[in-house]
Specification:
This protein is of the alpha/beta class and about 300 residues long. Helices cover about 40% and strands about 20% of the residues. It binds nicotinamide-adenine-dinucleotide.
Length: about 300
């Protein structure tokens, strides 16, 4: 059984990935800033301000290390850009330094984001498209990608960046799904940023975990960057309709007609690279939204 280390194992993506990889017969070790893991896995706590990752490698070597830690909010990155930089870029450098010294043969996957693309000139977005972030978050994810490339090129580490598009699923208490679902449940009208025509390429957390599983279990060398999405462009108004339908709501929807600073307008990924590793979508948006709403209803009780 291969050893896998998940950094940020108590977060939304990290916690789902811990369970998924454990169920798929990997020996999973977690690492986060909390005192305890969420699930029954081997675990290291690191300091939130001065994380020292080197102690993790004192006793074990890992076949793959997946970094799911980091700040995950565009609005927060405008308010506290330095914190965002520390979490998204400085910590990646610290992790890669420890890996270079103690576990240089592993595969290192850093969860990056579609935010590195900003507003792309054409859709679907290929990995070699021009990178023009429009938020501190996007710029810092791009810094982290550059650091991964540095360690890949100069030190020969097997470091790759996964540009995850719009993730959703049970446990997510932020971003559009949570915001719209809560407004549909509790507000008299559903107020939404933008026109409703903006698009995102949504991917359910189970499919993200499956994609990562395919990458770490592949015998092929991994490219420098890989888009993680379904290659489907979905307008925001369709997500609102799916959530209203899952909650059986007839509430009025009011679009602000203004976009939030830092939010790109249209996203659709080219996923031909990911497909080469055998990826296929398994959770449709309709089923994913139904499952998310069932989870939220129970969580809100
Ligand atoms: N959720 C999305 O839609 C999405 C999309 C694209 C990319 N991403 C990226 O994926 C990553 C994970 O996102 P998420 O939604 O799971 O975020 P999250 O905030 O739920 O999880 C992040 C986890 O990292 C932990 N952490 C913070 N500092 C740490 C440190 N120094 N060492 C170890 N752990 C630390 C936190 O305690 C938390 O448990 C982030 O980098 C985010 O930018 C997320």
């Amino acid at each position: 059984m291969e050893n896998i280390l998940i950094i940020g194992s108590n977060g939304f993506i990290g916690s789902h990935l811990s369970v998924y990889l454990k169920d798929n017969v990997y020996d999973v070790t977690g690492c986060d800033i909390a005192s305890k893991p969420l699930y029954d896995i081997k675990y290291f706590q690191v300091d939130s301000l001065k994380p020292d990752y080197s102690k993790i490698f004192n006793h074990s070597e890992y076949a793959a290390i997946i970094n799911c830690s980091g700040a995950a909010s565009v609005p927060d990155s405008f308010k506290t850009p330095e914190t965002d930089f520390t979490l998204n870029a400085v910590n990646v450098m610290k992790q890669l330094e420890s890996i270079r010294e103690s576990n240089a043969g592993c595969t290192y996957l850093n969860i990056s984001s579609a935010a590195v693309y900003g507003n792309p000139a054409e859709l679907p977005i290929k990995e070699d498209a021009k990178l023009s972030p429009v938020s501190p978050y996007g710029f810092h994810k791009l810094c982290a990608e550059t650091i991964c490339n540095e360690y890949r090129t100069l030190y020969g580490l097997k470091a790759s960046s996964l540009r995850v598009f719009s993730a959703y699923g049970p446990g997510l208490r932020k971003q559009i799904f949570y915001d719209i679902a809560k407004k549909t449940m509790y507000d008299s009208e559903i107020h939404v940023f933008g026109t409703g025509n903006e698009t995102r390429d949504y991917i359910h957390i189970k499919d993200i975990c499956h994609a990562i599983y395919l990458l770490i279990s592949s015998k092929k060398a991994l490219p420098t960057v890989i888009n993680i999405a379904n290659g489907v462009q979905v307008p925001v108004k369709n997500v609102v309709d799916e959530i209203k339908s899952a909650l059986d709501s007839g509430k009025k929807v009011v679009f602000s007609e203004h976009n939030r600073t830092g939010d790109p307008l249209y996203w659709q990924a080219d996923i031909s690279v990911l497909k080469q590793f055998g990826y296929k979508q398994t959770v449709s948006l309709e089923n994913g939204v139904k499952e998310y709403i069932e989870w939220l209803k129970k969580a809100e009780k």
